[in-house]
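yo, Peptidase inhibitor I78 family protein is done. seq:
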Amino acid sequence: MRYLVLLALAAVTGCIGDDEDAKGSATCDPAAFAFLVGQPKSALDGVLTPETVRVMNMTSPATMDHRPDRLNVIHDDDDTIIKVTCG
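structure:
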């Protein structure tokens, strides 16, 4: 019985993907999204973005954790995108 448990555990361990696959790209290129600056926030709807995107108002509080894979899209009170950064 103990061997069956170990065998099942080994089989499940083989199904776990690489950690890099789960995170996606480790870097972000803000220049690729510079065309969004000046556009309404709704322009993001048709854009293929990195897996992690943070859209926020320029006056909103935000965490200070640095995530190189995260795209930050900052907009003003009129919902116009004013800045695109990574981190």
